[in-house]
DNA sequence: AAACGATCCAACCGCACGAGC
DNA sequence: AGCTCGTGCGGTTGGATCGTT
């Protein structure tokens, strides 16, 4: 027997969320943490179904989400993971912790699918992946990389499996409060002189223990530990994290921010992990990732960088 | 400036799955 | 064993926005 739809009750509001609703939801989650979505509308008085609350949080309000244009690097990762995993957006999103599966799915459907189709038409004689037919990928070391063979694709799959973000799903929940800050800014403008909402406090990473690792088509875990990473990769992660901390917007601090981060000890611990040399593509992936993340002020989270301490 | 089509993306829908009773 | 509950996921929709004529 199927279960009844959760949203067919009378009085359940649908459509776009208002700033007021967002604030109620954020305040509640701040206090209780995400999860137990059934109780959220009951306890908050929101006229929304539990599923709607969960989606609003995971796709929009959740800290650490990066919005805006996808970088060429992100595009490349999505294209290759899509070719490997198919339309398993949640799994793909686990490698791009600042992007939601919904965002990736939308981006694929609106941009990449067309791009691939167009590229496929013009590069039918090439064995390169169509999306890379007219693209090169500069490396931090000064060279450039092209993805040109099936072995490269396989290699990139392996890279994805050992992504520095792969095992830190909570990173996507971590420090950036941009979304909520903007939300609150707008709310304050239209509702002044109402008192400001209570400061947001640190989210315990334990709130996110239910995040599942990605698995391949055979159900095997794709996400592995850091034991294949080099010290340089870790430095990338640390450096990005440190820069991010320094460049945290005022609103983040005003609302309390989210704690966490590396200590020297944990860093050293990670540095001691075994690390084989990186291939050229791996270097491109990681170096470029770090460079772009710093340059674009990607909201790399404290949570991401604190996750390795769990190992 | 207005009309129209294209594009974007937040949100919804329905299904699947595991846990608990 | 069968049911409900809670949640995750992928596909789809429709309103808002943008671009072009």
Write down how many β-strands occur, each being a DSSP E stretch of 2 or more residues. Answer: 2
Radius of gyration: 21 Å
| Sequence of strands across the biggest β-sheet | 1-2
Percent of residues in beta strands? under 5%
Helix segment tally: 13
**Poorly predicted runs:** 1-5, 125-179, 186-311
- What level of helicity do the residues show? 40-55%
Give the biggest beta sheet. 2 strands, antiparallel
The global form is elongated
| Count of individual domains | 2
Compute the average pLDDT. Answer: 54
Label the structural class: mainly alpha
Topology:
Layout: H1 19-32, H2 39-44, H3 50-61, H4 72-85, H5 89-93, H6 101-122, E1 137-138, E2 144-145, H7 150-161, H8 178-191, H9 231-246, H10 250-254, H11 264-271, H12 280-295, H13 302-306
Helix pairs in contact: 1-8, 4-7, 9-12
The chain binds a DNA duplex (21 and 21 nucleotides) through residues 1-7, 14-17, 35-38, 50-52, 54-56, 58-60, 87-90, 101-103, 105-107, 109-111, 210, 212.
GO biological process, one term: response to auxin
Pfam family, one: Myb_DNA-binding
Main location: nucleus
